[in-house]
Amino acid sequence: QVQLVESGGGLVQPGGSLRLSCAASGRIFRIVAMGWYRQAPGKQRELVAHISDDGSTKYADSVSGRFTISRDNAKNTVYLQTNMMKSEDTAVYYCYVDDFGAIYWGQGTQVTVSS
C-alpha cells in the first residue's frame, strides 16, 4: 500500500498564494504520474494539474498561468504552487499518484480563498 500525506492548505486572501505538498510513502513500485484534483461544494471533482514522470504537465484552463505543479522524485513528493488565487479556487484539494497503474489518493486539504 501507498500512503499520501498532504499539507499546506488553509485560508488565503484573494490574490494570495499557497503551496500544497503531497508526500507518498510505503510500498511504492514506480510512480509514473502525480497530480491534484479539487472538489468545491456542490460540484464534481475536477482535475487541477498533472505531472508525468518525464516532467510533462497539464493544467485545467481555469488555473493555467496561475498554478504550477512540480515534483521531487527523490522524495516522492508533488507540489502545487497556487498564485493569484480567486474565490472560485475554494475547494478541497486531493493529491493522487499513479504507481504503475495503481491509483492512490490523499485525504484532502481544504483551501479557502476569502477576504
Report the span from N to C terminus: 40 Å
Which spans have pLDDT < 50 for at least 5 consecutive residues? none
Task: Report Rg.
Answer: 13 Å
Helix content: under 10%
Strand fraction equals over 45%
Describe this protein's structure:
The model has no long low-confidence stretch (mean pLDDT 96). It is built from no helices and eleven strands. The strands form two sheets. Strands 2, 4, 5, 6, 9, 10 and 11 form a seven-stranded mixed sheet that branches. Strands 1-3-8-7 form a four-stranded antiparallel sheet, with no helix packed on it. By secondary structure, the protein is mainly beta.
Task: Sum up the structure in keywords.
seven-stranded mixed β-sheet; globular; 11 strands; 58% strand; mainly beta; 115 residues; four-stranded antiparallel β-sheet
List the topology elements.
Blueprint: E1 2-7, E2 10-12, E3 18-26, E4 31-39, E5 46-52, E6 57-59, E7 67-72, E8 77-82, E9 91-99, E10 102-105, E11 109-113
Parallel strand pairs: 2-11
Antiparallel strand pairs: 1-3, 3-8, 4-5, 4-9, 5-6, 7-8, 9-10, 9-11
In short:
This protein has 115 residues and is mainly β.
